[in-house]
Write a structure and sequence with these properties.
The chain has 272 residues and is of the alpha+beta class. Helix content is 34%, strand content 20%. The protein folds into two domains: 16-193, 2-Layer Sandwich (Heat Shock Protein 90), CATH 3.30.565; 199-268, no CATH class. The strands form three sheets. Strands 2-1-5-6-8-7 form a six-stranded mixed sheet, covered by helices on one side. It has a two-stranded antiparallel sheet with strand order 3-4. Strands 9-10 form a two-stranded antiparallel ribbon. A hairpin with a 6-residue loop joins strand 1 (30-35) and strand 2.
């Protein structure tokens, strides 16, 4: 199994990635802390240097158990949703250990406070990746064998689309997209601002044809951007502003376009 995962050498010795995953981490790998509200006492703390695969599983289980279940009104498209989309929780934790700098003795910290989850991992961005291009830039794994083993175990994404999924899942329920930054250290910090899903956003997306729009990250980013700007301009709610833009496009009043220089999406009024 270890050879098939690429975690053993030809003479049967574990690679560094194999040692991290199945033996233990040199120091505490993940430091998870749960508080019900900012400034409150911790109600759960998980720290260990056990095999990384065990640490990931335990922290994922703890964070999911504290991820508030939101009961939505009758007739709402999804019935029940989590305060933070479950897949986004798992992706941000896994990304925080796959892409971190394992030469650093500092742990990957997972702060779960109320409906906010923040993961801070040692090591800055590499290979030209920045917070502004992280969705479009080709994946650049710091430790390729670790990333591929996690993907083979179905804990990570070999294609490097973990961030895309986080963004998509947050926007699809009307929550802000993840806040991603590089801070002094260097560290990479990713925050997921959970909360009650927006029923109007979800119903609006469910009403669109084709239905794949709700799974298309570019479409979701464009809808979020346009709806927010339209709402600021008109004073309408974001979902209603989005439906107005859709209606105007269907009537031929607006046409979708793209600023090729900046790569930004926008609507324009076609010449008559």
């Amino acid at each position: 199994m270890l050879r098939r995962l690429g975690l053993a050498t030809g003479d049967g010795r574990l690679t560094n990635a194999g040692s991290l995953l199945f033996v233990g981490t040199p120091e505490t790998g993940i430091d998870y802390i749960r508080r019900d509200f900012p400034g409150g006492d911790s109600v759960n703390r998980i720290r260990s240097s056990r095999p990384l695969i065990e640490q990931v599983w335990e922290v994922d289980q703890a964070s999911q158990a504290s991820n508030r279940l939101v009961h939505v009104p009758e007739g709402f498209a999804h019935g029940q949703l989590r305060a933070i989309p479950s897949r986004a929780v798992r992706e941000v934790i896994v990304n925080g250990v796959i892409h971190r700098d394992w030469l650093s003795p500092q742990p990957t910290t997972v702060e779960h406070i109320g409906d906010m989850l923040t993961v801070t991992s040692p090591g800055g961005f590499i290979g030209g990746i920045t917070p502004t291009n992280i969705i479009t830039h080709p994946a650049v794994p710091r430790y390729r064998s670790l990333a591929e083993a996690m993907a083979a175990l179905r804990l990570g994404e070999r294609e490097g689309i973990g961030v895309d999924r986080m963004v998509r899942d947050m926007l699809a329920v009307g929550r802000p997209e993840p806040e991603i930054s590089e801070i002094a250290g260097p560290y990479v910090r990713v925050s997921l601002a959970g909360g009650d899903p927006d029923p109007e956003i979800v119903e609006f997306l469910a009403s669109l044809e084709p239905t794949r729009v709700a799974s298309d990250i570019d479409a979701l980013l464009l809808i979020d951007h346009l709806s927010t700007e339209a709402a600021d301009l008109t004073g309408l709610s974001v979902p209603y502003a989005g439906s107005v833009l859709t209606s105007l496009e269907e009537e031929g009043v607006l046409k979708p376009g793209r600023d090729n220089k900046a790569g930004r999406g926008f609507y324009y009024i076609p010449a008559r």
